[in-house]
């Protein structure tokens, strides 16, 4: 695993991946938006309002996916002191927070016409709001220390504590009565979404994932270059 | 034991403890996290005169508009027990017979006086044509079933 801890090797590898992930993002999102907005049928109950799903659901998945990845990175950072793991968590946090915000906002816009309310304090909505605060709290905590190393350590601990929230979000709709519907796709017994709607959803989810990969690689590269500049300046000042 | 291994075990133990604490807290708060009561839960739950939420399906053929034009009467059921509801106000788009609702209000003389009615949709998504086809297939199945004994 420490093979990729070498910054020079990481820069070479990420430079090779970036054009592909960026190209895939553009193609997947254009195709995905077209099939979600024009190439898929309206829902038998919700009509055209169902199209909010093609943004809302991938954003919700990504909010959890990014968090789990950050938590795994935090564990690697704490246990094996992997230098890139800390940087990854820091680079991914604003992207994950963004996905969570998109999920909350589109969910609210969807709830207003369908449920008849913008917001309720049911278990699913509340636990996702807590996830959003975990992201914000992590970002604030990492930047709250003069010594970046200590900030990262504190942030990693917070990330790992917040992991308990992940299964709560996923199973909140099964454990408790909620206004939010139960899972439609990742559930026992297979998806309950018609294939004509499942395909656009999958394309959008893939597009969101490649977008995440692209942005995190860019942010990591920038962070590594910035550190290099800092050390160069330090040696210059000392020498 | 190396320091890495010790850190790993510490981390595992801490997460285990945290998970157990979260599970205990959530089971202790179980009744408060529930967003609504079903008509069956109401049979055993002491609700008294306070506000609570009632959830279930709107019974087929139970929705009536009163002559004043703004009051709606319907029955919320979980197919075992049911509770009659009255509501004054505008209903959400998804409110229809056979669909889920969550109503907030209080019980008065066996009738639930709702202050707010929210629609709850299920996890099924399909185009209208598929829904029609399914309905027709079900209808077909039902008619063949009733025809069977005579044939």
UniProtKB/TrEMBL annotation, chain A:
InterPro entries: Cyt_c_assembly, Cyt_c_biogenesis_CcmC, Cyt_c_biogenesis_CcsA/CcmC. It comes from the Bacteria. The chain crosses the membrane at residues 12-39, 59-80, 92-113, 125-145, 157-177, 197-218. It is a multi-pass membrane protein. It is found in: Cell inner membrane; Membrane. Its main location: membrane. Keywords: Cell inner membrane, Cell membrane, Cytochrome c-type biogenesis, Membrane, Transmembrane, Transmembrane helix, Transport. Pfam families: Cytochrom_C_asm. Residues 21-180 form the Cytochrome c assembly protein domain. The keyword Transmembrane helix applies. Required for the export of heme to the periplasm for the biogenesis of c-type cytochromes. Belongs to the CcmC/CycZ/HelC family. NCBIfam families: ccmC. This is Heme exporter protein C. It comes from Azospirillum rugosum. The lineage of its organism: Bacteria, Pseudomonadati, Pseudomonadota, Alphaproteobacteria, Rhodospirillales.
TrEMBL record, chain B:
Keywords: Cell membrane, Cytochrome c-type biogenesis, Heme, Iron, Membrane, Metal-binding, Signal, Signal-anchor, Transmembrane, Transmembrane helix. InterPro entries: CcmE, CcmE-like_sf, NA-bd_OB-fold. It comes from the Bacteria. Residues 1-22 form the signal peptide. Residues 1-7 are cytoplasmic. Transmembrane segments: none annotated. It is found in: Cell membrane; Membrane. The keyword Flavoprotein does not apply. Gene3D superfamilies: Nucleic acid-binding proteins. Residues 29-151 are extracellular. It is a single-pass type II membrane protein. Heme binds at residues 121, 125. Belongs to the CcmE/CycJ family. Heme chaperone required for the biogenesis of c-type cytochromes. Transiently binds heme delivered by CcmC and transfers the heme to apo-cytochromes in a process facilitated by CcmF and CcmH. NCBIfam families: PRK13254.1-1 (NF009727), PRK13254.1-3 (NF009729), PRK13254.1-5 (NF009731). This is Cytochrome c-type biogenesis protein CcmE. It comes from Azospirillum rugosum.
